[in-house]
Amino acid sequence: MHSLLKRQITRYLAGFDRIEELQQLLSAVSDAYGQNEQELEILENSLFVTSKELNERNDTLKQQVEELASIQQQLQQSVAMLKATFDATGEYILVFDNEGNLINQNQMGQALIDTLAQKDEKPWHAISGQLSYPEKLRSMASSLKNDPLQDLEGHLEFKDGRILEYHSSAQKQLDKLVGRVWCLRDVTEHKKNEELIQYQAFHDALTALPNRHLLIDRLNHAIQLCHRNNKQLAVMFIDLDNFKKVNDSEGHEEGDRVLIEVAQRLRNTLREQDTLSRHGGDEFVLIIEDVRHQADLAQLAQKLCDVIAQPITLKGRKHYISSSIGISNYPSDDADPKALIRKADMAMYRAKKQGKNTYHFFSSDLESRALYQLEMERELHLAIEEEQLAVYFQPKISLDTNEIYSAEALVRWIDKQGRVIAPDQFIPLAEQSNLINKIGHYVFDKVCKALSDWNLAGYRHICIAVNLSPREFMDTELLTRIQSCLEKHCIEPSQIILEVTESLFLEDKKQVSRIMQQIREMGIRFALDDFGSGYASFDSLQSLPFDYLKVDKRFLKEVTENPKNAAIARSIIQVGKNLELSVIAEGIEDEPALEFVKKQGADIAQGFYFHKPLPTNEFEVLIK
Ligand code: C2E
Ligand code: MG
Ligand code: MG
After folding, report:
1. Nearest ligand, CA 611
2. Does this chain's domain 92-190 share its CATH topology with 205-362?
3. Which residue owns the Cα nearest ligand 1 atom 41?
4. Whose alpha carbon is nearest atom 19 of ligand 1?
5. pLDDT of residue 16
6. What is the distance in A from the centroid of ligand 1 to the CA of 410?
7. Using one digit for the tens of pLDDT, what is the confidence trace for 28-72?
8. Atom of ligand 1 nearest to the CA of 423
9. Relative to the alpha carbon of 424, which ligand is closest?
10. Cα separation of 277 and 86, whole Å?
11. Atom 21, ligand 1: residue with shortest CA distance
12. pLDDT tens digits, 472-507
């Protein structure tokens, strides 16, 4: 019997087990109790299982919620990072849908739109309204219509000077075109710097004129244009004549001011379409387009010469600058830009030789002469190396004693074929380069060597005059060279006379005077050669330490038949005498000329009438 039922019956029905009839009922009730208890147990069991499952499910859910929260946080961080990156690109980023509506932008993009667009104004409309060339946007739009997937890049120039560089590409989602992303970057500063660098590469810093690179470029274009239109152009090469003097005496700053002033004057004289460039130093090159007649060019060149020759006043002082101009023509002289400039340069050189402050047109004859000179220069180099130069001596006769007073050393070039080339044919060429210093040194050494031989041989001590070009005279090593040569051959300075011409006075006067004094103090004397043919002033004559004055031989030519020459020669001799200089008459070819100079009071004479310049051995015989 069920234990609970047994306890209840024991309590309420004492002696129930004796009641037979109740036994059956009690057994049934006891079964029901037992069954009930079993069901309860099952129910309890199942409740336990369910609750356990629920707890487990709850735990899983909790975990999932936590994971979700973490993912959400990560996502928020990524989005924030993306946005920060989007904002930090330094670019204006704008994203438009296919209809052209702005659907996304970074901070800078928003700021750009804010500055450009009025309220409710469409961004593209606003941008287009502020562009210098709005048609650019229109053509872009039509190009995108044809090919919406293409990438675009370029520059947008705004009316306020801003320049934005853009790159734009199609935006796709799952292979479907959804819009377009525009990245724009402000490159205004960059472009300005680029332009500045470009400008500096093609312009002269001092005058702001195009430099030679830009000149070549423009000349190239101009030639092509002329070729197409069957027209002519000219190149003018301008070189200032005495600019070096200003630079040396007044300093480079003053020289710069002169160049700026000259550039300004040239600019004011030329037409707008003509190109004026600074080629370097004191050289300017012009391109004159659309030339009709040579006469127009000549007129223009003369005008430019005149304009430059007007005195330039700086710091209250007037500078007198002149210019030499060479002109070459397209197509008659050449079709190559560099060759045209070179030929104009060549013609300029000719203008300089013609006495400066003038112009000269290029001619093929000039070119062949230049080529000849080039060849000559090359050969002269060789001649010096191979000792093909010889020194001749021309006696000078004292008009008091009729004896040889001294001699002038005159260089000769004896080429491989034994031909004697006169100095007039190579000295001017050598003067254009450092060659003249080499020649001068060579001659001086040969003269000292000859003097040393004659001194040792016991011939009477004779003086030798050596010619010195301005370039040699201004050479910084002149003094030491003279000194060491004299020492090397043990020669007294009083045995040397240096002949300089009036062209020396074109150099810096103070410097000339200083060098002359130094040489004079050594005991070497000076003669002013070819007087009357150049630029000497009486001031230079009396302020510089000359001992001799040589009358230029051209005035003694046919002096008895040519009254003008006679008048000049007479005056020159008189000037020399008044300044207490010994007067030397050179180029005496005949008796009447000799009589004339004697009568006028010249002290010394030199000329073919007495002797031609003689090789060393012949001269030696003479003085023995
Ligand atoms: P220069 O110094 O005036 O020399 C005098 C020139 O006149 C010489 O010409 C001489 O031969 C020439 N001569 C002399 N007597 C007569 C004459 O009676 N009639 C004529 N028609 N001519 C006469 P050369 O030797 O041809 O020299 C020419 C110039 O070359 C010289 O003129 C001088 O300026 C220059 N030269 C010569 N040798 C040298 C040198 O070693 N160094 C430099 N720097 N120049 C030199
Ligand atoms: Mg001379
Ligand atoms: Mg002379």
Report:
1. 1
2. no
3. 411
4. 587
5. 66
6. 6
7. 888 999 999 999 999 999 999 999 999 999 999 999 999 999 999
8. 30
9. 1
10. 50
11. 587
12. 999 999 999 999 999 999 999 999 999 999 988 878
Q: Is 249 helix (H, G, I), strand (E, B) or coil?
A: helix
Q: State the DSSP code for 590.
A: S
Ligand 1 neighbours, Cβ below 6 Å, are 394, 410-411, 422-424, 427, 440, 443, 467-469, 499, 529-530, 553, 586-589, 606-608, 613
Domain extents for the chain? 3-83, 92-190, 205-362, 394-409+437-623
Give the Cα separation of 232 and 226 in Å (integer). Answer: 6
Q: For atom 27 of ligand 1, which residue has the closest CA?
A: 423
For ligand 1, mutation pick of 429, 467, 533, 609 (most atoms within 8 Å of CB): 467
d(CA 212, CA 203): 8
Mean pLDDT over 207-219 rounds to 95
CATH topology of domain 205-362: Alpha-Beta Plaits (3.30.70)
Residue 76 to residue 71: CA distance in whole angstroms: 8
- Find the 262 Cα to ligand 2 centroid distance in Å: 38
Contact 275, 215 (CB under 8 A): yes
High-pLDDT (> 90) share of the chain, % = 75
Strand partners, 614: 393
Q: How far is the CA of 538 from the centre of ligand 2 (A)?
A: 20
Say what the pLDDT of residue 436 is.
Answer: 94
CATH class of this structure's domain 394-409+437-623: alpha beta
| Alpha carbon of 550 to ligand 3 centroid (Å) | 7
Q: Report the separation in Å between the CA atom of 431 and the middle of ligand 1, taken as the mean of its atom positions.
A: 15
* 86 Cα to the center of ligand 1, angstroms: 87
Question: Could you tell me which residues are beta bridge partners of residue 186?
Answer: 164
The rounded distance, in Å, linking the Cα atoms of 116 and 121 is 9
* Cβ-defined contacts of 543-549 (< 8 Å, 24+): 543/513, 544/512, 544/513, 544/516, 545/516, 545/517, 545/520, 546/581, 547/497, 547/581, 547/582, 548/497, 548/581, 548/582, 548/583, 548/584, 548/604, 549/575, 549/576, 549/579, 549/581, 549/582, 549/583, 549/584
| CATH class, 92-190 region | alpha beta
Amino acid at 213: H
Which pLDDT value is given to residue 250? Answer: 84
In this structure, is the dihedral angle defined by the CA atoms of residues 157, 160, 161 and 162, taken in order, positive or negative? negative
* Residue whose entry in the numeric block shows the structure tokens 């402000």: 186
CB atoms within 10 A of CB 421: 18
